[in-house]
Amino acid sequence: MSRKKRIIISLSLVLAIFTPLLIWDNMRIETVCYDIKDKNIPEAFNGFKIVQASDLHNNLFGENQHRLIEAIKKENPDIIVITGDLIDSEKMASSVTFIKEAVKIAPCYYVNGNHEIWTGLYESQIKPMLLENGVCVLDDEKTYIARGEARLPILGLSDRGYVGDLVKGTILEELTADEDFTLLLSHRPELFELYAEENVSLVLTGHAHGGQVRIPFTHQGLYAPNQGLFPKYTEGVFKKHNTQMIVSRGLGNNVFPIPRVNNCYQLAAVTLNRE
Q1: How many C-beta atoms surround the C-beta of residue 82 within 10 A?
Q2: β-pairing, 228-229 with 236-240?
Q3: How far is CA 59 from CA 66, 102, 161, 204, 250, in A?
Q4: What's the pLDDT tens digit per position in 37-78?
Q5: DSSP letters along 127-195, please?
Q6: Distance separating alpha carbons of residues 274 and 226, to the nearest angstrom
């Protein structure tokens, strides 16, 4: 057998083995569970469960988003939070379907990402659609969930203009004032230092897509927007001082046709535990 033929056969075998895995990674949803402990969580919210859906990018998981919705239902969440990049363009049908089904499961809270802002449709179409379906939209705002006399503050940082006020910390400083425990929804994990400086208790973020390609046998992603090659914040829990940040790998891909490798889609199921 010639050397050229051996190479062709070897490459064919590699493709035969890894192509199904690649396809599977770009179809399946993994639910990752996180237990967050903090002494400042109100007693009434001990055991409170949050499901985070991030970076859907118009992706479709079966008819009427059946697979995604069933994965969320299985967790029986108290609330669902959506941390940006719900859509990519004016084509919103898949994302609208997801929203219509998600609000039937639990109250939904939303903060936008860079893709909603880039479309130029956020104020005219996307935000009205969310509000019409009963989603709580947090544009540099704070709201509360009440259980008896206890309240859990939920903060949301809009991705619009983040390079300005966010870097200065003015918005966060105002939103976190006079709060013992704060839950922040923000699209960008690369602002972790800012979240820690402002003493945010728990931040739920996305944006990094798990690094798109995850290097086998490591926890390292290859690339993330605004972090570049070998980014620091692509998935999991990060801690600094009194701040914990969860980065979701997300549920979709952006407009660039680069498949995920060793990096399946993710839902985060977060349970609050009072220490």
Answers
A1: 29
A2: unpaired
A3: 12, 15, 26, 20, 11
A4: 999 999 999 999 999 999 999 999 999 999 999 999 999 999
A5: HHHHHHTT-EE-SSEEEEEEETTEEEEEEEE-STTTTTHHHHTHHHHHHHTT-SS-EEEES-GGGHHHH
A6: 34
- Report which DSSP code applies to 63: G
Kind and range of the H or E run holding 4? helix 3-25
SS3 212: coil
User: Which residue has tokens 């992603």?
Assistant: 221
Single-letter residue type at 110: Y
Helix (H, G, I), strand (E, B) or coil at 214: strand
**Helix 93-102 with 66-75: angle, nearest 10 deg:** 30
241 secondary structure, DSSP code: T
| pTM value > 0.85 | yes
- DSSP 3-state assignment of 249? coil
Give the β-pairing of 223-224 and 228-229.
Answer: antiparallel
pLDDT 10s digits, 244-257? 999 999 998 875 55
Q: Letter for the amino acid at 119?
A: T
Among residues 146, 113, 144, the alpha carbon closest in space to that of 130 is found at 113
Dig out the tokens for 44 from the structure: 């009434």
Q: Which of 165, 141, 169 is nearest to 154 (CA)?
A: 141
